[in-house]
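Researcher: Structure prediction, please.
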Amino acid sequence: MSRWGDRGDVPRGADYDARWDALIEAGESVHGEADLVCHLLDGLVGPAGPDDAPTPPCVMDAGCGTGRVAVELAGRGIDVVGVDLDEGMLDTAIAKAPELDWCRADLVDVDVGRSFDVIVMAGNVVIFLAAGTEAAVLANLARHLRLDGLLVAGFQL
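Model: Predicted structure follows.
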């Protein structure tokens, strides 16, 4: 069980999104993580595809929650996969953007069968991991990175 799963006092799903919606209505930017990822990807060309054309950069949103970052990145033309263990949060993400790739899994052993230019863990993902799994999660996510890929983790309390 993750620390997130242990917390009964945090909003989930649509209630979680209401906080972000209120910030947007107040004129706040809620896409700083997406801005950073796009900056890191700027000028990056993915490996050649089957027709030798470069593939678009791809991002894993690890601990994607309701999909705030993943949906924004997809809207900017980024190939993105969202991963989260919380069924209610992921259901909200899927409802927002059913066309995106979503995966319900624990980050400690997730395997989406592909590699990424950037893996982003926005917000408080790291501090809500199950106690003692932090190193295993980071090792597993690193396994999903392309050569010279970046893992970006943020913390906000």
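Model: Strands lie at 58-62, 79-84, 101-104, 116-121, 145-153.
Researcher: Thanks, that helps.
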